Amino acid sequence: MGMSIKLLIEQLSDKLNDDQRELLNAADEEQQRLRSLVDDLLDLSKIEAGKMQMEFQDVAVNSLFQRAQKVMVSQAEEKGIRFEVNTPSEKIIVKADPSKIIWVLTNLIGNALRYTDSGGTIRLNAGIYSRIVYLSVEDTGAGIPPEHQAKIFDKFVQVKNERSTGGTGLGLAICREIVRAHGGTIWVDSEPGKGSKFTFTIPSAYLNKE
Ligand SMILES: Nc1ncnc2c1ncn2[C@@H]1O[C@H](COP(=O)(O)OP(=O)(O)OP(=O)(O)O)[C@@H](O)[C@H]1O
Ligand SMILES: [Mg+2]
């Protein structure tokens, strides 16, 4: 459907008046939104049913961070938000499906961008304690009231406020399923008005001092 709307907009470009063009653009945006909703729901039900194909490999945390940063850095620049990546001094290798973990990171960063005002900072951190690797995405944004902190990982849960437009409340539910499929957990530490820090764990493959 997306393709046919785009073709319509292109092929009729000199015949459309402004109202018609606006309508078609709105239809295009709506179909993109619906498609991403359907994709998210399918992903979620596949992981919940244990049917999502996981491709585990040994991968460096630095490379996961770099790839997530590459995807998100321009959005941060556009919003005037500092983006810091604190790569650990030792080389941390995890056993993970890289594209799934990058999905989790970009989703957490996307949320952080939405709930942080310009002038704020988003930080990626990594650490390892007794073979468990901790990855976190921290922001200096709006924060989350304590009574909502446990619930936001459930499907369709959004904290009602002026920014919670657009999304569907599936992002964190998918993050949690992906992290679970890696044998890890995910949680949030947050203080309203100060910011939020989302942390998740994945098992290390081995530890290599550089
Ligand atoms: N970094 C954050 N700062 C403040 N609130 C957050 C942050 N991340 C998530 N939240 C809260 O948790 C809710 C759930 O997040 P989730 O990513 O699951 O859904 P969404 O971003 O609203 O929609 P979707 O991810 O489906 O587009 C958000 O609606 C928001 O209220
Ligand atoms: Mg989200």
Can you offer a commentary on this structure?
The protein has 210 residues and is of the alpha+beta class. It has 2 domains: 2-48; 57-208, Heat Shock Protein 90, CATH 3.30.565.10. It is 44% helix and 25% strand. It has helices spanning 2-11, 18-48, 61-79, 98-114, 146-149, 171-181, and strands spanning 57-60, 82-86, 91-96, 121-129, 132-139, 186-191, 195-208. Strand 6 (186-191) and strand 7 (195-208) form a beta hairpin. Helix 1 (2-11) runs antiparallel to helix 2. The longest helix is centred in the N-terminal third of the chain and has 31 residues, at 18-48. The mean pLDDT is 90. The structure holds adenosine-5'-triphosphate and magnesium ion (MG). Magnesium ion is lined by residues 107, 110-111, 167, 171.
CATH superfamily of the largest domain: Histidine kinase-like ATPase, C-terminal domain
The second-level CATH architecture of the largest domain is: 2-Layer Sandwich
Write the H/E string, N to C.
HHEHEEHEEHHEE
Low-confidence stretches: none
Per-chain topology:
Blueprint: H1 2-11, H2 18-48, E1 57-60, H3 61-79, E2 82-86, E3 91-96, H4 98-114, E4 121-129, E5 132-139, H5 146-149, H6 171-181, E6 186-191, E7 195-208
Parallel strand pairs: 2-4
Antiparallel strand pairs: 1-3, 3-7, 4-5, 5-7, 6-7
Helix pairs in contact: 1-2, 2-6, 3-4, 4-6
Bound molecules: adenosine-5'-triphosphate and magnesium ion (MG).
